[in-house]
Amino acid sequence: MKSIILDPSFAAWRTAARDLLMEGARPEEVLWRESDASATVFGTIEPPPPGSVDPNAKKPVKIAREFLAMLETAACYRAPDRWPFLYKALWRWTQGDRAVASPQDADGHRLHRMIETVEAEESEMRKVLRFRHRDASLGPPEFISWFEPVHDLLEHAAMHFATRMGSATWMIATPHGAAFWDGALLRVDRTSEPEEKPMDFGETAMSGEAVSGDAIEALWLAYYESTFAPAQANAAEMASHMPVRYWKSPQNECADPALISRADPYSRRDRHPRNVPPEMEVAINTDLEPIKGTMLTEPPSLDACRRCALWRNATQAVPGAGPADARVMLVGEQPGDHEDREGKPFVGPAGKLLDEALAEAALERESLYLTNAVKHFKWEAHGDERTHLAPAQREREACRYWLDEELRRIAPKVVVALGATALKALTGHRTALSEYLGKTIEHQGRIVVPTYHPSYLLRLTDEKVRTEVFGTIVEALVFAQQIADGTATTRTPVKDRTR
């Protein structure tokens, strides 16, 4: 019998399940146990002993994305046997038994019931969750709230609120953990079982409002601050000592404050690029279908690319720059205002910070190939200034043609993904940057080193956090060069687990 102890998260289960499938472990041969507590703390991968990697070892089994999504949702269902049940379903699928995905099958019926229950509770959470706006003088997070879910859906649902509330910082606490958003990165931390007796916050608090001055609120807020400082040892220590209690929902007689939302650059309600002036709307709306059709075409040059609509309001396309035989490639998100005007990558404020990081890492910019996942600047006007907007998925996919061309032409040994957008573009999957900080990914024959984008430093006001983030970028650059030189000794690539 093989014993598996894992953090109660889908990501941890997926990692263990892939390894078990490669070993050929049958469901009845595995004993699953959850760890008492877990925290999403960044870490590193220890290298295997020399000579222990078998080049002829089995590759991970490919799973249909739709079935994997079903398992991910079902994993939120709190049940004593959820992990062995999910592995049983996965095992049947890999053995060619596709009936496991059907509601007519016994296991398939249970799988669908779990999914329906989780989706219903997540829908309820989106309807009833309320945030309290904190005094700005207290510092981030700007909004705090809590929810008492029956199932472990916080991580699954948190991205909805990150999308809804844009750059606003917030915290959602539950009896089993909390989600933290700093305007750019999402972290979900899980804790041990809550105490048996919930705390009583009295009758004066409004529904969805965390009570000011309460000791538990103070602990969560302190944990929020530590979570986004990459001093992982401190965060782990705090997580291990922090008591967890129910944040009991107050009486419903009080009026609920409205769920506060902000204009969000990632919102899918805006179906065409928002950097387009009003006078061009008619032209673009009539051109949307032809533009979609050109997604499959091969433009003669980057300047002539019309695979998406971003070219309409950009000064010029910004190609990558660097030696044709560069061993290290740096991939960012998209050009900024300075890059758009000069036609060169990383020449604006973020580029200056990147130069500082390169100098700290003892690397020369001239030896690296620098590019972006998207080649045109997406922006909206704020007075006389052009403000950056994050590229949409359709725009990233359209520009993937040019990123793939650069990867083929340069054939770098290592690719540094600067930020979440670059990591998504390189892997082709919706990947959490926080899950891979401090690690490397082996994807399609190349090694990817994820780290923060230098522009993240421009939004940080806490000098300690800023220093830590800058150090993380420098460490990633140093390690990438060590891999390229063949001198890396502290970490080895992990297989791409983003699918």
UniProtKB/TrEMBL annotation:
Domain Uracil-DNA glycosylase-like per the UniProt entry, residue ranges: 319-469
GO molecular function, one term: 4 iron, 4 sulfur cluster binding
Domain of life: Bacteria
Keywords: 4Fe-4S, DNA damage, DNA repair, Hydrolase, Iron, Iron-sulfur, Metal-binding
Protein's GO biological process: DNA repair
InterPro entries: DNA_repair_put, DUF4130, UDG_Type-4/5, Ura-DNA_glyco_family4, Uracil-DNA_glycosylase-like, Uracil-DNA_glycosylase-like_sf
Record-stated family: Belongs to the uracil-DNA glycosylase (UDG) superfamily. Type 4 (UDGa) family.
Name of the protein this chain belongs to: Type-4 uracil-DNA glycosylase
Lineage: Bacteria, Pseudomonadati, Pseudomonadota, Betaproteobacteria, Burkholderiales
